[in-house]
Amino acid sequence: MNHLMSITAAMMMVAATTACTEASQEGPVIGKQEITVKDGRLTPEALWAMGRIGSSCASPDGQRIVYTVTYYSVKENKSHQVICLMNADGTGQTQLTTTSASEGQPAWIKGGSKIAFLTSAGGSSQIWEMNPDGTGRRQLSVYDGDIEGFSFSPDESKVLFIAQVKYGQRTTDLYPDLDKATGRVIDDLMYKHWDEWVETVPHPFVAAFDGNQTGPAVDVIEGEPYEAPMKPFGGIEQLAWSTDSKQVAYTCRKKTGLEYSVSTDSDIYLYDTETRQTRNLCKEDAADPNSGYDTNPQFSPDGSRIAWQSMERDGYESDRNRLCVMELATGKKTYVTESFQSGVDGFCWAPDSETLYFVGVWHGTSMVYSTNLQGEVKQLTEGQYDYASVALLDDSRLLTKRHSMSEADELFTVNLKSGNEVTRITAENDHIFSQLKIGKVEPRWTKTVDGKELLSWVIYPSDFDPSKKYPTLLFCEGGPQSPVSQFWSYRWNFQIMAANDYIIIAPNRRGLPGFGMEWLEEISTNYGGHCMDDYLSAIDDIATEPYVDKDRLGCVGASFGGYSVYWLAGHHNKRFKAFIAHDGFFNMEQQYLETEELWFTNWDLGGPYWEKNNPAVQRSYANSPHLFVDKWDTPILCIHGEKDFRILGSQGMAAFNAARLRGVPAELLIYPDENHWVLGPQNGILWQRTFFRWLDKWLKK
Fold this sequence. Notes:
This protein is α+β, with helices and mostly antiparallel strands. It is about 15% helix and about 30% strand. The protein has 14 helices and 39 strands. The strands form nine sheets. Strands 32-33-35-34-36-37-38-39 form an eight-stranded mixed sheet, with helices on both faces. Strands 27, 28, 29, 30 and 31 form a five-stranded antiparallel sheet that branches. β7 and β8 (about 140) form a beta hairpin. The chain is globular. The relative contact order is 0.10.
């Protein structure tokens, strides 16, 4: 969910954004990193040496694939994104871009004879083109500002792009003579978001394109103080061209200030480029106005329908994402994934305009599925993996990205005419993984306190010996509604924990998707309920194994997982010998007033703490971890970023101060320049070293 995002998926988006931000800075070109791994043990340095595959796009004939990879330099403390090309079978891989500027978002144009892409090589982020061999580079767009994403119309007579526009007044607008003043005068909410003070918002623009250069741009929502796409993570996927190149569908929540901060009611709008008239597709059906998130529109290949991801309820950002299909001629809407009791995380149309492919999580893995317009859902892939995206390669194959707890992202194809055969087509990090000893990952089912079945993933040390006893970590997931599926993280990485001789148990506790709506929603206004029981059931169950040292148990987590650590520190009955909490909220009353997206706290906590007659609210705030500090008795490491506007750094500092005042051994790792994640390479290395130094100190004595 947005409030406490899935760590893995969101980090990949921000990593790509960071790369583009650093693009214009001159310096050494950061390329593929070579590293020698000793003893087969994964290290922080090896993690940061891995290339991270980003977006990919198939050529019109399905014969070639262009994709991006981001590389990191710990020494330079920077990232660099490059564009690569290969044949659709994975052969002929080559890097197309070699400038010091990061370059990304490649797309095929002009029948596959050119590749369009974004680069700041000319001083600002603009659309350029090049030949498929990397030659013939030249700038296409002439926009006075940075372009953040783009999409050419099907007939390539126009280009749709994203750029920032000014939002609100600056201090210098009020007092021009105070041009060096740094104060902000604020009179409404949403003045900060994620990790920034909101002074601009993204708008969609349309410009004519004559094949050589773009013309003057028209702001699709000119004069409107709204975001399209929506912050903080929306991109070009929230906009789409109609097949006739005459209309643009865009995602927008047309609210500001307090109204914005308490609502998730975004809609899909249809803008006519000729008449400049706009329709709200979501509100045209009076019987189904839909008041939750509606995002990511895509037109069917025949142009008769449009599909998008749709949540039903306003204020519930972790509601199930359904796949909605609308007939444009009649306005009739159909939800075609109702039989799949989990969310749609990404989708694409089949060439026949009658079938859609999507990815979604169920029982701790994310697979590729298909559905027809009648809602008949079929699972196409299997295995202990997460498929992270799905797109058409050609009429018979899908292009997808896949990872697991044992392998970083690589690109794969799914052959729909050969029994859905899956073929790996990239080997970005084989030079590193070939040196690693990977720990075994297996599912474990545990009976809960109320008689239900709880799925956990158990990760074992790479040299696991069942005759030995190992310190063991309970991993607490964030979200709260983010799945513990087969994710690969560059910070919360289970294989690096296993390489340090820890067993890890990661439960899909109450509140996580992939187990039906009842399981998902039981956490709302009940943070101290069965979700916490599930944590303890999981660690108690694994502790019965002879190879688990029950006297050396640790508990770690970030975001809601950080809250969980703070809460368990006051309720664990001496189970654990060490805690680590990253970016968790410690004081719920403080969190309600400090966070920016109030729809989250209103839904998950039930509302503001001053509603004394609301039983759900009183139950929620009675489970604030700060109320149980008198029971803290175990060493704790608190980590937080001061640019985290989702959960302010004051929460981590307060928890650390409380522990020290209580006489509990504690340490604080504070980052003045990091947000809800840790994005800088050297900060990432520092995080890992601090993490394991703390655990080793208390669990390996």
